[in-house]
């Protein structure tokens, strides 16, 4: 009986375990089995070295009706992207929001010198303000491919560029519920992204820096 009970408990734990999910953006029909709502005319670039969706910075975006990290107490979101050199000054290229209004955003700001990362977490309640991580001194060249990451360990959020930690801060955030993710634009259809997005990875754990994706040979030291 003890062995049977243990087997049932292990089986239940495995059945309830969440798996990591990867979205490869190489078409305009679906990602990881999720159907897409398409705004404008993003272009599926399958001929390049890295298959990706390209966005025009004015009209293009996609909405995915899923939040793979819903229910997770800790998580990591990674995005492989290439910002255009002539992009708008403010760009919200990843926006996750659940039905209660809680959200996670990965954004950039740009200037003639390049771009810098802007990440945000908010529980969706006015009584619990969110946390923004941004430093305009941490500028990276536009054009190359990068991996950026937003990590939350249950208490602290941390931002990364190519596996290198940039900023961190404390935030109160309950697990996300069901909702959707927009790529290429904020969900209220402002601050459009110009450039390419190749891949998004969701993990239901706070990954250590050495486990994060990175692109070798791309400058990660911010210009000062």
How are the elements arranged and paired?
Blueprint: H1 2-16, E1 21-24, E2 30-31, E3 34-35, E4 37-39, E5 43-45, E6 52-56, E7 61-64, E8 75-83, E9 90-98, E10 103-111, E11 114-122, E12 131-134, E13 146-152, E14 156-161, E15 164-170, E16 179-183, E17 194-203
Describe the structure.
The protein has 224 residues and is mainly β. The protein has one helix at 2-16, and strands at residues 21-24, 30-31, 34-35, 37-39, 43-45, 52-56, 61-64, 75-83, 90-98, 103-111, 114-122, 131-134, 146-152, 156-161, 164-170, 179-183, 194-203. Strands 1, 5, 6, 8, 13, 14, 15 and 17 form an eight-stranded antiparallel beta sheet that branches. Strands 4-7-16-9-10-11-12 form a seven-stranded antiparallel beta sheet, with no helix packed on it. The termini are far apart. Residues 1-17 have low confidence and may be disordered.
Derived from helix and strand composition plus strand pairing, the structural class reads: mainly beta
For the biggest sheet, the summary is: 8 strands, antiparallel
Give the amount of beta strand, in percent.
Answer: 35-45%
Q: Note the gap between the termini.
A: 66 Å
Summarize the model shown.
With 224 residues, the protein is mostly beta strands. It is 7% helix and 44% strand.
């Amino acid at each position: 009986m003890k062995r049977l009970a243990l087997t049932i408990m292990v089986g239940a734990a495995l059945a309830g375990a969440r798996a990591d999910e990867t979205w490869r953006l190489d078409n305009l029909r679906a990602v990881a089995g999720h159907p897409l709502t398409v705004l404008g005319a993003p272009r599926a670039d399958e001929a390049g070295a890295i298959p990706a969706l390209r966005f025009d910075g004015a009209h293009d975006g996609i909405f995915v009706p899923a939040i793979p990290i819903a229910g997770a107490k800790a998580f990591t979101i990674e995005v492989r992207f290439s910002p255009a050199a002539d992009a708008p000054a403010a760009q919200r290229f990843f926006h996750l929001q659940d039905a209660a209004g809680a959200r996670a955003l990965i954004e950039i700001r740009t200037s003639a010198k390049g771009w810098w990362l802007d990440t945000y977490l908010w529980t969706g309640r006015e009584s619990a303000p969110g946390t923004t991580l941004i430093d305009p001194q941490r500028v990276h060249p536009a054009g190359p491919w990068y991996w950026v990451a937003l990590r939350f360990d249950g208490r602290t959020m941390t931002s990364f560029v190519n596996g290198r930690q940039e900023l961190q801060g404390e935030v109160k955030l309950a697990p996300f519920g069901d909702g959707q993710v927009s790529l290429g634009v904020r969900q209220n259809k402002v601050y459009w992204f110009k450039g390419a997005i190749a891949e998004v990875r969701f993990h239901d754990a706070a990954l250590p820096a050495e486990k994060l994706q990175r692109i070798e040979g791309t400058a990660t030291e911010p210009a000062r």
